[in-house]
Fold:
Amino acid sequence: MPASLHCPSSPASAALPAPPAHADDRLRILREVFGYPSFRGAQAAIIDHVTAGGDALVLMPTGGGKSLCYQIPAIARQRAGLGITVVISPLIALMHDQVGALREAGVEAAFLNSTLDWRAALAVEQRLLRGELTLLYAAPERVTTPRFLELLDTLAARARLALFAIDEAHCVSQWGHDFRPEYRALALLHERYARVPRIALTATADALTRADIIEQLRLQNAREFISSFDRPNIRYTIVEKKDPTAQLLRFIEREHEGQAGVVYCQSRKRVEAVAQTLLQAGIDALPYHAGMDAALRQQYQDRFLREDGVVMVATIAFGMGIDKPDVRFVAHLDMPKNIEGYYQETGRAGRDGLPADAWMTYGLQDVVNQRRMIDESPAEESFKQIMRGKLDALLALAEATDCRRVRLLRYFGQDSAPCGNCDNCLHAPAVWDGTDAARKLLSTIYRVHQHSGFGFGAQHIMDVLRGKATEKVRQFGHERISTFGLGAEFSEAQLRSVLRQLIATGALAIDAAHFNTLALTDASRPVLRGEIPVQLRESAASGSASAPARGKRGARHERPGAPAATPSTTGLDAAAQARLDALKLWRAEVARGHNLPAYVIFHDATLSAIAQTAPRSLDELHEISGIGEKKLQAYGAEVLRVCTSAVAAAPR
Ligand code: ADP
Ligand code: ZN
Structure:
């Protein structure tokens, strides 16, 4: 029991004043511990605010550097004698690596979760009470157990509870895309430990979710730090779905051969099938979904994190908290539920800031499926209404003929100019006037309903309009309808895109309760009357390609026998390349020995910089970004040796 553990006598000065947040201190920690020369964006302001004891809600895109926003205050407050920071993270499977990364940097950190046996857990608790830890990671369900709260009580009574960091804070909101009921219980942290500052962090939350996080976590007094949501290095592309697996294969082969990526599919079955197809095509692909055995899932996740160039084919069960920096693409074979989900998932690409792709295939069936899932869910109507609104925003993004990024950022309340790095900016899609086709479709839907007394699905409506006397058309006598054959000049692909657009804008509804039949809405009328012009992307099938070929980006140095180099390594001369290859081999060995992913030892960017500058002394090595004092001590001499011998061994 925690109370029976040996504890050092608690200090008399239970309520130490918050340390003044010295700019020098935080900069010193950044350089000393993490080896980075300067802060990014709002990091410095957030760190000052939290170190001084303020509450904060931090919205920062993936890869923006959220971790340092609580890790540096944790170190500063521990150094000031204020005790430990408790990090609440939903990701048990990743805690080991997160803690490993901190230890590599010389920070005393540990985790408490169900992967530890009782002996190991007890040892962590003892270290905690002895004040030896700077950060402790735990999952929300753990934090709210009586035993854990007792530990916290003890620490709080001694004024040794420095900070709570609530990671992935959007999980608290049912409006978010990853609701975890356990997060709700975290409100008690504030109720129980009102004096302990809290910082909540998330990468994705629209205005509604943000308000909910504040409400649920009682963060009304927190300062909000909202960074730009933009991820300029990610290129957004949305293509029309035809043969999605074949399209994916072409995309990977053309642009991301040998590189790490994530492919999202809606169903487990599809995950298995797509992974199989990729494997057969010689791509190092693994499946991941909640139906798999937990141990196998963990093993695959570890392979994805620890090896180069693995493609993970997964349901959305995969990815939260994955901090692998060199994921070069995220592909969606099925459309997610809303823009938040899409943005969170695509955000897992390119954390290292190097070029990356977010690529999605999208078709009429996606619209139908997502609508149906909302309509058929047991939720209340008011909730469904919100979900429909969110889906509509995503549909509008998929149908957009203008800059995708402008729309994405606008969704999160941010204005911007066309980005020049999305499919629509790079290759302005041909636009055609679908007003006439839209009117004819709506009119056909209306007349068919009038004629038969019930509605019909998309395929049948298109057949009638195009004048195809199918068996079904004849069976219902629909060749006698006045619009029969009136749209013979339109291709099916064109009509499909009109239907998608009409559904996306709410001018047409899908009646999920009646076999996905199409139904007019109030918003249909102005379109029917021709009052609202319908502008459409030219469908791929009707001329301009929706996925124009483009040259390989970041052309990679392909040398037989060499590991596939990431784009960061372009432009290295032979000697530097030899150093880099040797450093990568060395790093892989160290990572294996420590049972950690390679990037936890040194990032690719750091290795590249070492290879390029060829430092000759520890002092020179220390100049390079990403090498803190602990790593310099632990690895500096080895790194210098590897560099020297690599060049000596390289062919002239
Ligand atoms: P997030 O949690 O916001 O997605 P991370 O905290 O994982 O992002 O940071 C992303 C990457 O950027 C990490 O590899 C981290 O080490 C690096 N990083 C963060 N802050 C800085 C900085 N000030 N200078 C250089 N690199 C940084
Ligand atoms: Zn753009």
User: Anything to note?
Assistant: The pocket of adenosine-5'-diphosphate (ligand 1) is lined by residues 36, 39-40, 43, 60, 62-68, 323, 325, 351, 603 (CB under 6 Å). Residues 574-594 form the longest helix (21 residues).
